[in-house]
Design goal:
The protein is an alpha+beta fold. The chain contains 4 helices and 2 strands; from the N terminus they run αααββα.
């Protein structure tokens, strides 16, 4: 007999190696599909970024709505500040109008009789 016979163990190894090669070729083929769709990540990333911006703006909107704009100063301190500025502007043409107390801010409004000789930039500061 010139024909070589294969033992069962050798035959199983050959069959397993062929199936493994087929699996690897399928995996390589699936990688090629991902490589062909290189343009796909840009829209996905932009959609994720837009979604994050929308969620962040909605969070800030609801966060601002839920916070109370009460000031850090109590009512007695607010009254003392208002009385101080009203006394400062009793005599003269400038008049104290009101004081607003926001979170971390005290805004004093004063009525003046004439326009100030200043630029718009200086008046806004």
């Amino acid at each position: 007999m010139t024909q070589r016979t294969i033992k069962h163990g050798d035959w199983v190894k050959i069959v397993e190696s062929r199936t493994e090669q087929k699996k690897q070729s399928l995996r390589k083929g699936s990688r090629k599909k991902v490589v062909l769709s290189k343009k796909a990540p840009f829209p996905i990333i932009s959609m994720l970024l837009a979604g994050f911006i929308i969620l962040a703006s909605a969070w800030m909107y609801f966060f601002e709505e839920n916070t109370t704009h009460s000031s850090l100063l109590n009512v007695d301190t607010q009254n003392k500040i208002s009385r101080y500025f009203s006394k400062q502007f009793m005599m003269g043409s400038w008049q104290f109008k009101q004081a607003k107390f926001d979170t971390g801010e005290v805004n004093i409004f004063i009525s003046i009789p004439q326009k100030l000789a200043m630029n718009k930039n200086e008046l806004e500061v």
